[in-house]
């Protein structure tokens, strides 16, 4: 027996795989999320002392009064924190959690470590919709301004993903290879249409808006936009947290899943449609934010393993924290300039990904 | 628990892979399925455990109509050691084995003490104690196969199907896996490629050729040089092994 087991063993999975280690990780991540959300409102064009930010937030949320009442209700910082920055930070929290959730689900559903929330052609479909709305417009249809762009981005995202799903399941069984290829084809097609529109557009301001939109931004966040995102993401999180057994079985493949009593075909389809809808809602409200849905699941898998009952909660919290802080960087790194957040996620995400590629012990799903 | 396969036929497009196969495994029998590559063994097994939809025929596990029942109801009774054991994402050995509990669990139910004990017992049975926290993808082929077997043991099946469970394994692990399975004291249907091992472990054999059952019976009755010659297209002589007393097969190269 021992002969075959005596080969030099690869690095043992970390203590974070154990039950208590995992509880500790979740506890720490949860507290960090709360602390981050509170601290992040202090940063911006105007820096506000962190302690004061916390007191203002606490007062607004719980009615608790710590210190000067005047300062908590009508001070100059109150509007900045409560009306502008806090909804934006909450938006970052939900978008980060949502993108990571969708990325994790997609990676399981197509059994492919390269999958991300945009794999079903969602990115280019949304871009096409948004480009159309910004540069050509739907004034005659009564959908104007931002609402119009959001609506058409959503429509484009959902339309493209349905096309991809149909294409991938045409002519027999839907396989993950066919899905990825169908996603590429639809991406190319939508990008071509969008580029066509941009090329012939004479509206320089519009083109800049399109560019900004395709790189993602949380700048347009406000309290009235928050409920849709918050409710969508919360429902999605609750739903998918309950699906950990199916998600685990997905990683084993269709045949093994059947022998464990789960027929994956229907689940996979439903998960993909739900993920497409959720991603569509997110893209419609803040544009395309790349890398988060791809890299955070891998990063957290390296920490707590592939078992979704650990992976999902940990990666959702991690994604939320990551997004809160990348947004802080996006609005503070260049004075008086609001950078698209997609630039920051890629600038931070790419080196993290490279580190994981170089580091041993995590093989991105491949053999170690 | 008995397995009854009745007049099962499977086609892929025009090709008939399995044609009108009937077989029976009575309570606690170890039944082997042998035949050359491409004879339809795997396809037959896959259609029994619901991965492939047969064109016609019925499968019963005692009273349970396997083809009509939901996958979960079947998985509570039937364990499968298949050939599909590569992972695209890594799990630890314990996580892999814990998945055997899936068919017994509700959506939101977490694993309890009893599950933990079943998982530990399964690890012990396949001699992988102390390796629970290793990564599955880092294991050798023999270890992986034992982990899969442990997962099926944790599933507590009342009947087990094995599709060439000893493929690519060293002889030591071939024997080890067959010994574990033999000791389970439940009904077993196993596709095997080694004829002498099949003769040694099986109570009864079905021989398949070109999608049909070519012969069936007790190993010593049907594993004759004529049958092996006809089904496997090799010349051989059979003899009684002077050391073990079991059936021996000497393959002759001239043909």
TrEMBL record, chain A:
It comes from the Bacteria. It is a multi-pass membrane protein. It holds the Pfam family FecCD. The chain crosses the membrane at residues 20-43, 89-106, 118-138, 150-168, 180-202, 223-244, 270-299, 311-333, 339-358. Keywords: Cell membrane, Membrane, Transmembrane, Transmembrane helix, Transport. Its main location: membrane. It is found in: Cell membrane. Belongs to the binding-protein-dependent transport system permease family. FecCD subfamily. This is Iron ABC transporter permease. It comes from Paenibacillus tritici.
From TrEMBL, chain B:
Transmembrane segments: none annotated. GO terms for molecular function: ATP binding. Residues 3-235 form the ABC transporter domain. Keywords: ATP-binding, Nucleotide-binding. Pfam families: ABC_tran. InterPro entries: AAA+_ATPase, ABC_transporter-like_ATP-bd, ABC_transporter-like_CS, P-loop_NTPase. PROSITE patterns: ABC_TRANSPORTER_1 (PS00211), ABC_TRANSPORTER_2 (PS50893). This is ABC transporter ATP-binding protein. It comes from Paenibacillus tritici.
């Amino acid at each position: 027996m021992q002969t075959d087991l005596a080969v030099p063993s690869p690095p043992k999975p970390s203590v974070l795989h154990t039950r208590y280690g995992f509880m500790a990780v979740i506890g720490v991540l949860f507290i960090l999320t709360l602390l981050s959300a509170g601290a992040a409102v202090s940063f911006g064009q105007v820096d506000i002392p962190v302690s004061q930010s916390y007191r203002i937030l606490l007062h607004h949320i719980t009615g608790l009064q710590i210190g000067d009442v005047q300062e908590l209700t009508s001070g100059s910082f109150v509007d900045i924190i409560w009306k502008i920055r806090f909804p934006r930070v909450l938006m970052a929290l939900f978008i980060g959690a949502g993108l990571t959730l969708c990325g994790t689900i997609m990676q399981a559903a197509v059994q492919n470590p390269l999958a991300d929330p945009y794999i079903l052609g969602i990115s280019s479909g949304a871009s096409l919709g948004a480009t159309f709305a910004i540069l050509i417009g739907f004034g005659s249809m009564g959908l104007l301004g931002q609402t119009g762009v959001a609506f058409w981005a959503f429509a484009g995202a959902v339309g493209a993903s349905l096309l991809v799903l149909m294409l991938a399941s045409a002519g027999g069984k839907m396989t993950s290879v066919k899905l990825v290829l169908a996603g590429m084809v639809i991406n190319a097609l939508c990008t071509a249409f969008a580029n066509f529109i941009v090329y012939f557009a004479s509206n320089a301001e519009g083109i800049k808006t399109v560019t900004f939109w395709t790189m993602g931004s949380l700048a347009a966040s406000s309290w009235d936009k928050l409920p849709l995102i918050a409710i969508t993401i919360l429902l999605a999180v609750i739903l998918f947290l309950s699906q950990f057994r199916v998600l685990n079985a997905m990683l084993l493949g269709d045949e093994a899943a059947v022998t464990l009593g789960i027929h994956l075909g229907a689940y996979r389809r439903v998960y993909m449609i739900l993920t497409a809808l959720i991603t569509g809602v997110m893209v419609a409200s803040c544009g395309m934010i790349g890398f988060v849905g791809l890299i955070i699941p891998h990063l957290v898998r390296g920490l707590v393993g592939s078992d979704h009952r650990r992976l999902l909660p940990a990666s959702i919290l991690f994604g939320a924290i990551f997004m809160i802080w990348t947004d802080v960087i996006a609005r503070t790194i260049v004075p008086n300039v609001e950078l698209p957040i997609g630039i920051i996620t890629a600038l931070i995400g790419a080196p993290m990904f490279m580190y994981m590629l170089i580091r041993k012990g995590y093989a991105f799903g491949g053999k170690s | 628990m008995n397995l009854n396969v009745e007049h099962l036929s499977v086609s892929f497009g025009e090709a008939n892979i399995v044609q009108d196969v009937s077989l029976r495994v009575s309570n606690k029998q170890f039944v082997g399925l042998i035949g050359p590559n491409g004879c339809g063994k795997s396809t037959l097994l896959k259609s029994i455990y619901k991965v492939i939809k047969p064109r016609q025929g019925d499968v019963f596990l005692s009273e349970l109509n396997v083809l009509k029942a939901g996958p979960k109801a079947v998985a509570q009774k039937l364990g499968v050691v298949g050939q599909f054991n590569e992972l695209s994402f890594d799990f630890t050995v314990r996580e892999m084995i814990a998945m055997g509990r899936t068919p017994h669990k509700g959506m939101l139910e977490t694993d309890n003490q009893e599950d933990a004990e079943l998982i530990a017992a399964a690890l012990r049975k396949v001699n992988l104690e102390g390796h629970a926290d290793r990564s599955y993808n880092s294991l050798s082929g023999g270890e992986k196969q034992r982990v899969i077997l442990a997962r099926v043991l944790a599933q507590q099946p009342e009947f087990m199907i094995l599709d060439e469970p000893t493929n690519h394994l060293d002889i030591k692990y071939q024997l080890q896996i067959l010994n574990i399975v033999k000791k389970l004291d439940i009904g077993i249907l196993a596709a095997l490629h080694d004829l002498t091992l099949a003769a040694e472990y099986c109570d009864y054999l079905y021989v398949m050729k070109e999608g049909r059952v070519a012969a069936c019976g007790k190993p010593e009755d049907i594993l004759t040089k004529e049958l092996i010659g006809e089904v496997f297209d090799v010349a051989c002589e059979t003899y009684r092994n002077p050391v073990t007393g079991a059936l021996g097969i000497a393959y002759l190269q001239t043909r």
